[in-house]
Write a structure and sequence with these properties.
single chain; 3-stranded antiparallel beta sheet; Alpha-Beta Plaits; ribosomal protein; 306 residues; structural constituent of ribosome; 5-stranded antiparallel beta sheet; 11 helices; alpha+beta
């Protein structure tokens, strides 16, 4: 495939050389023609992607912003052999997935194409998704707050001694933080929310956090979407436990039973309550009259001899 692509390019360049300004066109073609090694690399990458798509049925789409190379290698080693990370240019990943779907007739992976934007990768696995997610989340590295960085979470600084000398009160004054001098150091009077999630970190905020030795942000691979059974869903779904599902089902059954009792419309959810209510009525009638039955007699005996 690489040789045919180069041959076609050379034939196209040869035709151009017969036209006016042939030398200039030939030079431009030589400069822009992709090398055989580059074409071979693309073909090897495509084969790798196709093999992964054939081998695995589940995947995570993960964001890789602010993830260092050493951290990345640690994650790769931790996930092997249960999962494999695929990184690369989004255009190359999309191209390979589209070609795979067209040639194999298997379109299940098309749903992820629209989500391959920005700095993302794909983690393929056949194992338990919760186990893989837990392993991914283990590798979060603390990072300082940089100027103009969009905060991924709220940053709170607790009250107390900062260990800074009184000459540095200007940082606190610029941020409107109440302080006092205690034993020759600056002490914050109250807990302070220094940065809000989604806001950009200012210069004074970044400097103060650095002086306090606080690394407020943790970075790692962020799971954006989960692929399973030919569909994509939010990773928060994986956090739902059996207990959560049981509570939701129980609450739904209780609502159905309450509605059925209020409207006198029997359902499987309301019949046990209807039977109990009927028994209470019969028991009340028995206690108020001479009519009795074994269970009612027990209650009458208790009432007669408390």
């Amino acid at each position: 495939a690489a040789q045919s692509s180069v041959t076609f390019w050379l034939l196209q360049t040869s035709w151009r050389c017969k036209q006016p300004h042939a030398c200039l066109l030939h030079q431009q073609a030589a400069e822009t023609m992709p090398g055989a090694s580059k074409i071979a690399q693309k073909e090897a990458y495509h084969e790798k992607v196709c093999k992964l798509l054939d081998t695995y049925d589940k995947a995570f789409i993960v964001g890789a912003d602010n993830v260092g190379s050493m951290q990345f290698q640690q994650i790769r080693r931790a996930l092997r052999p249960d999962a494999v990370i695929l990184m690369g240019k989004n255009t190359m990943m999309k191209r390979s997935i589209k070609m795979y779907c067209e040639t194999s007739g298997n379109d299940k992976w098309r749903v992820i194409l629209d989500h391959l934007v920005n700095n993302v990768g794909i983690i393929f696995t056949n194992g338990d998704l919760n186990d893989v997610k837990e392993e991914i989340n283990k590798y979060k590295v603390g990072a300082p707050a940089r100027v103009n960085l969009i905060a991924p979470c709220d940053v709170h600084v607790p009250a107390g001694s900062t260990g800074m000398d009184p000459s540095q009160t200007s940082f606190f004054q610029a941020l409107g933080i109440a302080t006092k001098i205690t034993k020759g150091t600056i002490e914050m009077v109250n807990d302070v929310q220094l940065v809000k999630q989604g806001e950009r970190v200012g210069a004074s905020q970044a400097t103060l956090l650095s002086k306090l030795g606080i690394k407020p942000f943790k970075y790692g691979l962020e799971i954006q979407q989960v692929f399973e059974n030919n569909t994509l869903y939010d990773p928060a779904v994986l956090d739902i436990t059996d207990e959560d599902m049981l509570k939701s089902v129980s609450a739904g059954i209780a609502n159905v039973a309450a509605l059925s009792l209020a409207t006198d419309c029997p359902t499987l959810a309301s019949i046990p309550h209807s039977v109990i209510n009927g028994y209470k009525n019969v028991l009340g009638l028995s206690l108020a009259t001479d009519y009795s039955f074994p269970l009612a007699q027990k209650v009458k005996d208790i009432l007669a001899n408390p």
